Amino acid sequence: MSEVLEAALRVVLVLGAFLTLPLLVGQTEHKAMAHMQSRLGPMYAGGFHGWAQLVADGVKFAQKEEVVPAAADRTIFRLAPAVAMIPYLVVLVAIPVGPGDLVGHDLDAGLFFVLAVMGVGVLGALMAGWASANKFSLLGGLRTAAQLTAYELPFILAAASVAMAAGTLSLPGIVDAWEPWWLLWQLPGAVVFFVAGLAELQRPPFDMPVADSEIIFGAFTEYTGLRFALFLLAEYAGIVVLCALTTVLFLGGWRGPFDEALGGAPGVVWTLAKTMALAFVVIWLRVSYPRLREDQLQRLAWQGLVPVALGQLALTGVVAVTVS
Amino acid sequence: MKVPGAGLAKGLAVTLRTMGRRSVTAQYPDVKPELPPRSRGVIALLEENCTVCMLCARECPDWCIYIDSHKETIPAPEGGRERQRNVLDRFDIDFSLCMYCGICIEVCPFDALFWSPEFEYSELDIRDLTHGKERLGQWMATVPPPPAHDHHGVRAKEVDAAQKAADKAIEP
């Protein structure tokens, strides 16, 4: 009985994190982006500096009419938002936030699981693009496909480098094996992982598939109301997952520089702090850089990230063998 | 020497620096804007000064000033002659036509028209934008005092002429 209770508690906690952290990132984006552009951002909702803006947005989305285009493939069209969102929820279960038992579920092949499930989320955008019966949606879907084909490879190669260095696929295991000097040694891998992850999330400057000034909103053009909100939630949940994964794989997860002095500072704080700092970088990049063109996207992936990831992999292999 | 990625770093620095600065957003309905002097918000009418000379209505490029008046006879003072005076009945400005050129204010020889910085007089119906002399008169309270003269500027001809006359009078 207690096992069931514990499992239920873990699921509830993960679900809670899944529902609050993306909103936190979204609100940070509203405000940080506004101030980076010398604006104020939302100021009214909730009274104090518009803190409840996203809640208000959610209420608005819930009230909107659900429209399915006449020519659309109804079932797939309605299923797509769930397919886009649920993988991130599932991935969150496997990400450790603290030492020991502080993980939704400790998987032996956690890294493998996480990467595989994150790949599914992309299907949501493809389904939406294909089922909408709209040329802009289709263009967006195809661009998504092209982009993911290009960026999945460096993403996985960079992750593989860490797994090789740590000698394990378990996410808590990787954090345990992590040493501060890995920050330097795995730096190229970390950059490749983060950039490729951004591209997978279709975040600016890699938002060619949803480029609103040319193809309206890509695969999500025909969506309204709650289903559209789910796509947005998936994007922000994706940011949280990517940042948490980068933290766990490359930044030492729950381990921080002053752990002994603080008497074992709660690792959860370190994990969350690093994750939020990375989320800020995601927002920062979005504000600073213009959108990459399709050929620039492909060149960056194939001529930039893939060779760097391969080089990192070779370096990791050599060092791992010599050290052991 | 050009360091690769310097441009990328510069871009990040610009956004970060901007985030540290105060934003330029004016929170208008909550905070009233500080308008510069001589802002052209609305045209105010000082009814007592108006002599119904009709110059403003005639000079108005889009004919948005409507004036009606009648003549009034002032009874003669002792031994004098009766005088006639113009009484203003209607002075309307249609602000849906007005293009805020300010020619009416320039041509008014009796200082009956003024610029007021007041700008919050939008209406839901375009016909309600025609404002009568009562409303135009209320705006007089919002007219700022005229800005001081420029110390280094050339003095007005009238002032020089008056000064000359005064000097002559003092001279023996």
Q: What attributes characterize this protein structure?
A:
heterodimer, A: 324 residues, mainly alpha, 12 helices, globular, B: 172 residues, alpha+beta, Alpha-Beta Plaits, 3-stranded antiparallel beta sheet, two-stranded antiparallel sheet, 5 helices, 5 strands
Q: What is the CATH topology assignment of the domain at 41-147 in chain B?
A: Alpha-Beta Plaits
Structural class of chain A: mainly alpha
CATH class call of the domain at 41-147 in chain B: Alpha Beta
Question: Within the largest sheet of chain B, what's the order of strands?
Answer: 2-3-5
Q: Mean pLDDT of chain A, nearest integer?
A: 85
Secondary structure tally, helices of chain A: 12
Shape of chain A from CA axes? globular
Proportion of strand residues of chain A: under 5%
How far the N terminus sits from the C terminus of chain B, by CA atoms, comes to: 83 Å
End-to-end gap of chain A: 44 Å
Low-confidence stretches of chain B: none
Counting copies of identical and different chains, the oligomeric state is heterodimer
Descriptive notes:
- The complex is a heterodimer of chains A (324) and B (172).
- Chain A has twelve helices and no strands.
- Chain A has 324 residues and is mostly helical.
- Chain A has one domain (2-323).
- Chain B is an alpha+beta fold and 172 residues long.
- Chain B is 26% helix and 19% strand.
- In chain B, the strands form two sheets. Chain B has a three-stranded antiparallel sheet with strand order 2-3-5. In chain B, strands 1-4 form a two-stranded antiparallel sheet.
- In chain B, strand 2 (65-74) and strand 3 form a beta hairpin.
- Chain A binds chain B through residues 32, 34-40, 43, 284-285, 287-289, and chain B through 8, 11-12, 14-16, 18-19, 21, 23-25, 27.
Quick summary of this structure?
The complex is a heterodimer of chains A (324) and B (172). Chain A is an all-alpha fold and 324 residues long.
